[in-house]
Amino acid sequence: MIDEPGEKNAAMPWPGHERRGGVTLANWLVTAGVLALFVWSYYGSDIRLGELFSREGSGQILTYIRKLFPPDLSPTALHEGFRGAVETFAISFLGTLLAFAIGLSVVFFASRNLMYSGLLYEMEPSDWWRRGLRMVPYCAAKAILNILRTIPEIVWALIFVFIVGLGPFPGTLALGFHTGGVLGKLFGEVLEDVDYQPIEALQSTGASRLQILFYGIAPQVLPQFISYTLYRWEVNIRVAAVLGFVGAGGLGQRIQIAISLFLEHQLLTLLIFIYILVTIVDYLSAYLRRKAI
Amino acid sequence: MKSPARPYFNNAQKSYFPYLFSALFLAALIDSWRRVGVDLPLLFEKQGRDNILKFFGGMFPPEHSSQFLSLMARPALETIQISVVGTLIAIAIGFPLGILATRNFSVGGILNEADTSGSPLRYALRFSIYSAARGVLSLFRSIPEFVWAFMFVRAVGLGPFPGVLAIGIAYGGMLGKVYSEIFEAVNPRPLEALQSTGANKLQIFFYGWLPQVLPNFVSYTLYRWECAVRASAVLGLVGAGGLGQQIEISMRMFNFNEVLTILIILFIMVAAVDILSSKVRAVL
């Protein structure tokens, strides 16, 4: 496309960008609202940026950082850190597996096109009560997923510590429950996005709904399910590292002890362990995701 | 998203991966099972059953006295405030570091070809800046925000301030990484076109680069803000302000009906923020 150079083109520096109408009152209002939100938040959250950058404030933080060095590399500290890291890994691993199981067992009830509408149910006589009956498990499954997801991991951990006592086990349950809700939602989006052609083909051969589920839908969605699960595993390894703060085992418990007892050198060792663990899991999960898709 | 069903049976080439993977998976499963001390009967024994009943029975009815609700208003608003300022700080950290951590902006690519072609020293300098930025970002995001919050509580005292700093640092690392990924995926043609007109780097950045990435930036930042709201709601557990502190207090006092109220408040807040942010993203 050859255009004459001129004012008009100078205003359109890249293709596909059309200038919208000028600035309207709504634009101003939104801008003012956002700015007001910023100012309100700034004063409400008790920020002392001036203090942070003042000699005293930054001195305080620098002193703290200096106290962290050198890391405690004595055999006991390393051993303790290593055990914490392996325990954290175990919590995240089992927790994610539990979440996968929860998500997978609930999601099929929570997806509209499998439960009551769409291609699979076209041929069905549309009695209102039959449809209503099918809606019941659908709504129940949705509600369960929402509840699981709304409660943060750390609150689940508090709850399970109350129920089964201290240790890594409540942490695993907490991770599994919250992540189960998250995975259920993500899986549901994958399911509702499924390609209909294989399903139609199967249906035309007279396959039953269960057969369609296993041969038409599962092969399509499983790679994505696995990839989402691996992604959540990366998130969970970070969460598993802090669940110990409420008594649910792993590195978090040791970090809390180190911070509370002012064992700064040991704290740095544990932080290094978190860093290594998180990096390893990130790479591992990226590698497995490439394999899965 | 949509891919045809994959022909699994067609995987003719021999590979040890499945065997190796299954063995490692089983080993990890068994070891984790023992290490975590999975004790499912614990949930169904008398003690466990009693505790479950006590907890879920104690939740109803949720505490709804006006005194308690008005007491919760301030921490709930504080949670929003922490998340907003924390995200702003995260942008302030993530944006510059993310630019430096973009390979085709700071090291190679058309922007730097002319500069670095004949001078390995300059290349080395740029590469070290790039690596340093990546290292800082990965350090920031690898340490969970909870640990940052705990450390900042030690360094600057209790209250919402350490929560803001923790979210700023941890989310700064995440935003910076994603920003640099968005930057790297940019279409180089407009940049080349700009360069051929003799635009300098700053001009290329503002007219070629930024317009391409801005919508993605804003939508990812909004998504992170949603996460920040959830995070700041629980950071209070280590003394960093917001609703979390109240949850812990109520939990420790076994006032489970208060816990339910706080969870409902949290749910409403998170849902409102989600709706708001998805509205904004739909406009983009």
Summarize the structure in words.
The complex is a heterodimer of chains A (293) and B (284). Chain A is mostly helical and 293 residues long. Chain A is built from 13 helices and no strands. The two termini of chain A are 39 Å apart. The mean pLDDT of chain B is 82. Chain B is globular, with a radius of gyration of 25 Å.
Write the SSE topology.
The complex is a heterodimer of chains A (293) and B (284).
Chain A: H1 7-10, H2 25-44, H3 49-53, H4 55-68, H5 75-107, H6 112-115, H7 128-150, H8 153-164, H9 168-192, H10 196-204, H11 209-240, H12 251-260, H13 264-292
Helix pairs in contact in A: 5-9, 5-11, 5-12, 5-13, 7-9, 8-9, 9-11, 10-11, 11-13, 12-13
Chain B: H1 17-36, H2 41-44, H3 46-59, H4 66-100, H5 103-106, H6 109-116, H7 120-142, H8 145-156, H9 160-184, H10 188-196, H11 201-235, H12 243-252, H13 256-283
Helix pairs in contact in B: 3-13, 4-7, 4-9, 4-11, 4-13, 7-9, 8-9, 9-11, 10-11, 11-12, 11-13, 12-13
